[in-house]
Amino acid sequence: MKLAMIGLGKMGMNMARRLMQGNHEVVAYDLNAEAVQQISKEGARRAASLQEIVGQLAAPRVVWIMLPAGKPVEETISHLRELLQPEDIIIDGGNSFYKDDRRRYETLQAAGIRYMDVGVSGGIWGLQVGYCMMVGGDEAVFNFLEPVFKTLAPKDGYLYCGKSGAGHFVKMVHNGIEYGLMQAYGEGFEILDASEFADSFDYAKIAHLWNQGSVIRSWLLELAEDAFSKSAGLTDISGFVQDSGEGRWTVQQAVDTGVPAEVITLSLMRRFRSRQQDPFSERVLAALRREFGGHAVVKKKT
To answer: Is the sign of the CA dihedral 100, 106, 112, 116 positive or negative?
Structure first.
């Protein structure tokens, strides 16, 4: 199949490569001209604009967007809506909010353009091992695109999840679960590091050990082993942890539907805390302990 890939970041670039390895033809576009030049050397057709993308594809045109959620996706879809024809297909493979998918689906459907939301997981390892994909939209369009999903995914690595929005909804919850798993691993290793045995621990070896038949084995532990192998105490990085939106949306969904998602919610709050230095709330706590109990406080150094 011939399709366009818009967005050649860490995910989009390697997805384009995997598609070409599967004998699909890729038309590549990115605002970064160097990225377009690089992938064109590997066999992709280059495009310098959205207009050029449309001109290089045959009907029904398939355009896959791998851009950050929000304004970049909105603007790209808006421009494509003016360029594409009925029965052409837009795929958003980024981490968009599922309610945005429903709105886009309705808007594009009015113009006869098909829209699919595809949650993609796999990170920088996807080129080698494949991408896990959660697909939402019309099932007939999913069936048409299945050869593309089959190329990108490992065995049993893609699923039609339901109507428009379902793909990104499943991916949203997937990422919320990821928050909780990562937080549990982080806390566990911190307990190890605070213990009297810490001097004898090799965290890379412990992570490796736990992956040998243990009930907590996972790919995340494999990544932890790699990280500790590179830096035993992770002293080369700070504890500032960003979030890209899905954890917030998962927590909000839990609130909206009355689901008690304590672990995911607390893991999100912990990420917020990681970005603070000397948080005001802790200063309030220290002041209150001093006021009601005369407890000592640590003065700031001037």
So the answer is: positive
Helix ranges, 42-117 (H): 50-56, 71-83, 98-110
- Of 52, 146, 178, 222, the catalytic one is 178
Which residue matches tokens 């932890």?
224
CA angle 39, 120, 160 (to 5 degrees): 125
State yes or no: is 2 an active-site residue: no
What DSSP character marks residue 29? E
* Phi and psi torsions of 263, nearest 5°: -65, -50
User: Rounded distance, CA 186 to CA 224, Å?
Assistant: 10
pLDDT tens digits along 240-299: 888 878 999 999 999 999 999 999 999 999 999 999 888 888 888 888 888 888 888 888
Residue in 45, 40, 41 with CA at minimum distance from that of residue 25: 45
Interstrand relation of 114-121 and 132-136 (parallel, antiparallel or unpaired): antiparallel
Q: How far is the C-alpha of 263 from the C-alpha of 173, rounded, in Å?
A: 13
Instruction: Report yes or no: 164 and 117 within 8 Å, Cβ to Cβ.
Output: yes
166-193 and 262-274 helices, crossing angle to 10°: 70
Contact 16, 25 (CB under 8 A): no
Q: Is 4 helix (H, G, I), strand (E, B) or coil?
A: strand
pLDDT at 24: 98
Is 34 a known active-site residue?
no
260 vs 263: CA distance, rounded Å? 9
Asked whether 122 and 145 are in contact (CB, 8 A), the reply is no
